[in-house]
Amino acid sequence: WVLMHMVTHPAHRGKGAAGILVKWGIEQAERDGVPAYLEAGVMGRPIYERYGFIQVGELLEVDLKEGG
């Protein structure tokens, strides 16, 4: 299964909401015996690192607006 686009509303940032969401996702993956990986932006990276995720690569971003 895939869990996508976990975000925290600005009014709830810094109050533990993101941690609750991440922990829930990890628990579901562990329950089902599936690996967990994610793609995170700079802003979200610290919360994922707190839960044991490590950076293993970089994503390539391509701007296709011009002639793409």
Kindly describe this structure:
The termini are far apart. The protein is built from two helices and no strands. It is 32% helix and 0% strand. It has one domain: Gcn5-related N-acetyltransferase (GNAT) (Aminopeptidase), CATH 3.40.630.30. By secondary structure, the chain is mostly helical. The mean pLDDT is 86. It is globular.
Features:
single chain, 68 residues, mainly alpha, Aminopeptidase, globular, acyltransferase activity, transferring groups other than amino-acyl groups, GNAT_dom, Acyl_CoA_acyltransferase, N-acetyltransferase domain-containing protein
- The assigned CATH architecture is 3-Layer(aba) Sandwich
Task: Estimate the mean pLDDT confidence.
Answer: 86
**What is the H level of CATH, i.e. the homologous superfamily?**
Gcn5-related N-acetyltransferase (GNAT)
How is the CATH topology named? Aminopeptidase
CATH class: Alpha Beta
Task: Specify the overall morphology.
Answer: globular
Strand content: under 5%
Give the topology string: H per helix, E per strand. HH
Domain count, please report it: 1
Query: Can you tell me the residue ranges where pLDDT is under 50 for at least 5 consecutive residues?
Result: none
- Tell me the structural class: mainly alpha
What is the number of E strands? 0
Helical percentage: 25-40%
The radius of gyration computed from the alpha-carbon positions, rounded to a whole number of angstroms, is 14 Å
Biggest sheet architecture = none
First CA to last CA: what distance?
Answer: 31 Å
Number of helices: 2
Domain N-acetyltransferase: 1-68
Pfam families: Acetyltransf_10 (PF13673)
GO molecular function: acyltransferase activity, transferring groups other than amino-acyl groups
Protein name: N-acetyltransferase domain-containing protein
